[in-house]
Amino acid sequence: MIRRLVTSLRARRTSSVRGAVVAALATSLIALWLVPAGAVPGAGGAGGEDTASSSAQQVLTWTADDSVTEYASAPTTAAPGPTTIVFENSAATGNTTGMSHTLTFDTSSPEHNNDVQLNIVASPFDANGGRYEVDVVLSPGTYRYYCTIPGHGQMQGVLVVTEGGGSEDTTPPSVTSEVAGDRDGDGNYVGSATVKVTAEDPESGVESVEYELDDTGFRPYTEPVTVTEPGDHTVQYRATDGAGNTSETGSVTFTVVAGDPNDTAPPEVSASVSGDRDGDGNYVGSATVEVTAEDSGSGVDTVEYDLDGAGFKPYTEPLTVAEPGDHTVRYRATDHAGNTSEEGSVTFTVVEVDEGDTTPPEVTVQLTGSMNSEWKYVDSATVSLSANDPDSGVRFLRYSLDGGSYTPYGEPVVVNTPGEHTVLYHAIDHEGNRSEDGKVTFTVVAAEGDACPASDIRSTVMIGGHDSTVENVDTGNGCTINDMLASHTGHHGHGGPAERAVELAGQLAADEVISDAEKRRILRAAEHARSR
């Protein structure tokens, strides 16, 4: 039985703000399509947490960076049951361009589980800083996941869920650091040095990062640390994951020296533009401008930029421009000796993202058959489905008969069992848009004098599992040849299917229900069935 998605959704940047963010997400998560049709809301408990959240036994983390062909990290195995899925696409996971990514679970593939409907859109610049958490219930089997942002490469993978497939996270995060700044011939940093710390944890995710400068005590790390005091310095750092594992303390040592007061050369400054580009060279959705300045004399003091003539402002991090249109960014840098570089500039164009196909297919149904005066179908009703999607095309057309599981639709469905029936149906296009479930209800009744109201309507005569290739026709009283083989009504022969087939074939040929050639094919099939 398919387990429904538990829709206790939590988005947070760090655990310290979890409680406040849970309430605020009630509206914003709808825009992110985190609560799909058919999800079952949790009953909720104190503080708004639901039972799946409190009982989740494992945490699975996906991360994304600048790549458009693969996730930065993703789990491959898990155990069934309550699970917290974490998806982060942020500067901390390596996204320096501001590009959006999604984590989408495929619910249209018959080869994979489809009981978790999930489509998280994350960006380093969204309200949650690109980090989201969702509580779900996983079933044994495989889940296919992929990225749905139009124009991206194939970011996809498979998660295998088996009993004992998951494991408790006992591995601490991996933590690295790098030091940047202008350096003299001895390797000392001139004027200042900036230390950037990066932490990764593919299992339960990074919960917190801390640093300590020159034995002054650990404090939370939220952004690169700039050190301007001349002298030798040591920065220590560590990280803790969502399972409580803390890494060993790492450290980096460097020296800052004062700049040359007699420096008369201005800094060297340059800029680069990055982002997704279309065939005309325009940046799709947004463009990110990164300015770099160096000064080996007294060191860089300030960097400034001006976007579209709005005036110079301090440059502290890459600038992302999302407004469609033509843009120009001017830039300059000043060193500690007061020398200012000449202004440089870059010009580029931003265009809107093509949202692609967001319209589900249109599905039509036709119900045919002979009807009596009470508008009930006599003997059988035939359900014919068709779907149309002019944008990305129909990928799947499926139906469910009388509450059964959904089945791919290939040819008209013939229903000949007397009683009331309901057929549900929907279609999914190649962009994953699913139509609402359609519904048709009807009643089938047996014809008067029909000796076999629930006929075996297989297309050919089957004898002991062997196909005779003879058409399985109505023998004249509402019963097919297969019905006659099953019951042999009106005959007194004994023995198995082969013996009954031999006797019945002679009678049907004598009654001209079948031809002599068809009789011989039935006899050959009976001989094959007898020899098995």
UniProtKB/TrEMBL annotation:
Domain Blue (type 1) copper intervals: 90-161
MF GO annotations: copper ion binding; electron transfer activity
Biased composition (Polar residues): 168-177
Coiled-coil positions: none
PROSITE patterns: COPPER_BLUE
Gene3D superfamilies, per database record: 3.30.1920.20, Cupredoxins - blue copper proteins, Immunoglobulins
Residue ranges, annotated region (Disordered): 164-188, 258-281
Pfam family, one: Copper-bind
GO biological process: carbohydrate metabolic process
Organism domain of life: Bacteria
Membrane-spanning segments: none
Protein keywords: Copper, Electron transport, Metal-binding, Transport
Alphabetical list of CDD domains matching this protein: Cupredoxin (cd00920)
Designated name of the protein: Copper binding protein, plastocyanin/azurin family
Highest classification ranks of the organism: Bacteria, Bacillati, Actinomycetota, Actinomycetes, Pseudonocardiales
